Amino acid sequence: MRILVTGARGMLGAELCAALAPTHEVVAFDLPEADLTAPGSIDAIAARRPEALVHCAAMTDVDGCERDPQAAYAVNALGARHAALACQRLGAPLLYVSTDFVFDGAKREPYYEWDQPNPLGHYGRSKLAGEQAVRELLAQFFIVRTSWLFGRRGRNFVDGILAKARADGAVRVVNDQTGSPTRAADLAAALARLIGTQYFGTYHVTNGGCCTWHELAAEAVRLSGIRAEVAPISSADYPTPTRRPAYSVLANFCWERTFGAPLRPWRDALKEHLS
Ligand SMILES: NC(=O)c1ccc[n+]([C@@H]2O[C@H](COP(=O)([O-])OP(=O)(O)OC[C@H]3O[C@@H](n4cnc5c(N)ncnc54)[C@H](OP(=O)(O)O)[C@@H]3O)[C@@H](O)[C@H]2O)c1
């Protein structure tokens, strides 16, 4: 299949291009040559005649979205609409990557695909608006919500913590937000599998298990053999422009029922990332 990947140079997009390449023709689509906020992006995608599209492009700086909501909605909502309109014109299915931040974290047990979203900030709201555009415009779509990505490319929490632990010998990390860390390459393999099917709909896909940011940092430091103190702090001690969900674990219900097996536990995925 000829598959166009938006955000192809990002953390997930790059892994996805690599996962698709052996069995598909991959068309990479990213800034600066292709800006999804421009209406002309619909023609630009259509001109490449993909048979399916995976939409990884997004404004992922959560606090940046809070500071500049117009930019967040332009990329995350309007950009998704443009991708969906291109797919509508082509009759091609679209896979939209979404986020645990569409939930408010009040539930305190894993969120199912049909739980009611209630985002706390502009990143989550703009990503949810992107989901809505996809649902409104297309009959054949996948929406895959994931969480806490780490990978080889781009800015991510794990590498940031390790760099700071090495440099300072100590890090302070919030211990009152719980989620499921997910290795970008593991998610990419799952998306590559899904896009070749007709099992359309909404999925939650993460590595197995859950932890706090502090537990993730402590495990990454331990596995890396760095001698550094990893101190737990509360969110109140680390104020950010965006309120984050205290609990955003995603039950991978539809994925497991459709494909039979969950993704591996996050600790195993982290170990491979660091090895
Ligand atoms: N990272 C996480 O923890 C996480 C968690 C849950 C869900 N997700 C979702 O997973 C997907 C992939 O995330 P990621 O971490 O791989 O993101 P990323 O590394 O920030 O990559 C996003 C890509 O989109 C591109 N992009 C931004 N604005 C664009 C525009 N106007 N037109 C075209 N491309 C544009 C970026 O280009 P520039 O770099 O040049 O801006 C970048 O290459 C996103 O949909 C995100 O919302 C991520």
Question: What's the gist of this structure?
Answer:
The protein is 41% helix and 17% strand. It is α/β, with parallel strands linked by helices and 275 residues long.
Layout of strands and helices, then pairs:
Layout: E1 2-6, H1 11-20, E2 25-29, H2 40-47, E3 52-55, H3 62-67, H4 69-90, E4 94-99, H5 122-137, E5 141-146, E6 149-150, H6 157-168, E7 170-174, E8 178-179, E9 182-183, H7 184-195, E10 201-204, E11 211-212, H8 213-224, E12 229-233, H9 253-259, H10 266-274
Helix pairs in contact: 1-7, 2-4, 4-5, 6-8, 8-10
The protein binds NADP nicotinamide-adenine-dinucleotide phosphate.
Give your account of this protein's structure.
- With 275 residues, the chain is α/β, with parallel strands linked by helices.
- The protein has a single domain, classed as 3-Layer(aba) Sandwich (Rossmann fold), CATH 3.40.50.
- The relative contact order is 0.16.
- Strands 2-1-3-4-5-10 form a six-stranded parallel sheet, with helices on both faces.
- Helix 1 packs across helix 7 and helix 4 runs parallel beside helix 5.
- It contains ten helices and twelve strands.
- The structure holds NADP nicotinamide-adenine-dinucleotide phosphate.
- NADP nicotinamide-adenine-dinucleotide phosphate binds next to helix 1, helix 4 and strand 4.
- The site of NADP nicotinamide-adenine-dinucleotide phosphate has 28 residues, from helix 1, helix 4 and strand 4.
